Amino acid sequence: MFVLQLIALGLASVVSAALFPKGTLVKSIDEKGFRKIMQQNQTSVVAFVAPWCGYCQRMAPEYSQAAVGLHPLVSLYAVDCDADKNKGLCAEQGVKGFPTVKLFPRGDQLPSVTYDSNERTANAFFYWASQKVPHTVRKLGQVEDVEEWVAKKPSKPHAVLLSKDKKIPLLWRVLSNKYRDELLFAIHTDKKGNSAATLGVKGGDDSKSKVIVYPAESTKPALYDGMLKMDPLSEFFSAVIDGTADLQVADAETPISDEQVVLNVADKEVLVDEAVKDAGPPPEESSREKDEL
Ligand SMILES: *[C@@H]1O[C@H](CO)[C@@H](O)[C@H](O)[C@H]1NC(C)=O
């Protein structure tokens, strides 16, 4: 029995290794893993596949490439519906053909969206997923609007992106989705780089975008002086929410990192990690340009 199980496990990993390229960022999950990602307040994409299906085999490298482009903002997963332990989940998710790709905008808190095109390319997955990330980012036209907006709900902390650009970067949308109920998000276009000073925040590099936060019950903003990336910003916002953020350091004159890469295609802007650049070309390599948040 034990030996048989080992053989079965070995075969299962050979099968999934055959479907997705070596080193893929697509995580294979089972029902338990699926329930876990449904608890997260983040956008996830799940491909329901069968190893023998030709469309799945053709989709796999493209889906894998989309995972690189979206990492670490949106995670891509795969469920092998051929495995007995996943059959209940695949039935529950209404999987009738392979592959079935579904996007869960915010764990199980919002209805899922099924990918309904036959164009299963990295680019198509990439833009579909980035457009579907829900957000609650408020656009503040004038610098005076910032204080008014903060004063409306003083019980919650507020975060404002003083941006060089009008569009809401995907990173900012992802963060607003993740912390939707705990922290309020806004964007203000700050072309000249003087809005922070107008709001009484010193420091930072005026040629770059900045993030300022107002802790709960406070009308005094603080400058975030870390990198404008998913992980450090998440860590910082979690600390702001639970009241442990060390906002004194916000006065340090450390310039914000210019390490980000923005994928700028049509009207979509996506901030990705520097690591992604080294991991291989994301979709539409020609359209990438270096920029700030
Ligand atoms: C997700 O959001 C809900 C409220 O919408 C909250 O109660 C829960 O703690 C959040 N879960 C995580 C993992 O942050």
Automatic annotation (TrEMBL):
Pfam families: Thioredoxin. GO terms for biological process: response to endoplasmic reticulum stress. The keyword Isomerase applies. It comes from the Eukaryota. One of its GO terms (molecular function) is isomerase activity. Residues 273-293 are annotated as: Disordered. Residues 14-155 form the Thioredoxin domain. Keywords: Isomerase, Signal. Residues 1-17 form the signal peptide. One of its GO terms (cellular component) is endoplasmic reticulum lumen. The keyword Signal applies. This is Disulfide isomerase.
